[in-house]
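Support reply, case 0932

Customer input (verbatim):
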Amino acid sequence: MKHSQSQQTKPLAVALMGPTASGKTALALEIARWIPSEIISVDSALVYRGMDIGTAKPGAAELSAVPHHLIDIIDPTEAYSAAQFCKDVLRLSAEIRARGKLPLLVGGTMMYFKALMDGLDVLPAADPALRAQLELEAARIGTPAMHARLAQLDPTTAERLKPNDAQRIQRALEIIALTGQPMSQLLALRPKTELPFTLLQLALEPSDRSVLHQRIETRFDAMLQGGPGHNLLDEVATLRARGDLHPGLPSIRCVGYRQVWEHLDGQYDLPTLREKGIIATRQLAKRQLTWLRAMPQRISLDCLSANAIDQALLHINQHQEI
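Our regenerated output:
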């Protein structure tokens, strides 16, 4: 996907990145008030239908105010990959530009942003039969033992994965079984992709981490305390009642959903659920900020500042004039 255009002559797209609860949706809507835009969600949880409360999905008013894309596009039983995301973004950004609007890529799934910026991995597609076999084996011997096996076969990948990261450990072992090569070796062969647009990277980062933590706590409490049918407990109960979902699915492993599911399984009481959910969300925010710090071209905006919108508009307008 090589292009001869220089950065200056390519159309502009804006990446609005940041940790959970940093105010990305609100800022994106504010940008769209001043610059005709359409929002492309960069969130691996917002793709799922029927998962609204725990994902902090934009409400009906927000969705109607500005066109949104890549929200409510698959069922919780289905999978959505970084490769599919990149393919969808390239298509959508061209369509949005053709309508004379600015593509706003908004979200906190840093793996999607990285795939878009750095190029797609040269990795094989998932093999359902092999994946099921690995899942059975993990259930039998435990995820730490699977991690130990990976450490023997691909020490580079094992070193960057936590011993309890079942999904990624199984994926790495699956790749070795399918290709005969370690994942780290295949990633080194990844071709650099040149995007057909200039991507302005705006990162919402807190000047005071404790304030972000308080936002996370307040928002999680609001998710738990909504009225009947409008709280996270009822939402997960509805998902469980379908009968075709289980904790091994990527959708149910989303932060908040996993903890509520375990609570409804009787593993712990409501106060413990609250504590575990808040801790897991804080850990997610920490990982997101770590990803952001590894993006040298990002422009950092203080998400706690009252003039974040002014700064964002200034940078966007400057790049549009290039």
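We compared this against your earlier run and they match. Two observations from our side: The radius of gyration is 20 Å. Confidence is low (pLDDT under 50) at residues 1-7. Please reopen the case if you see a mismatch on your end.
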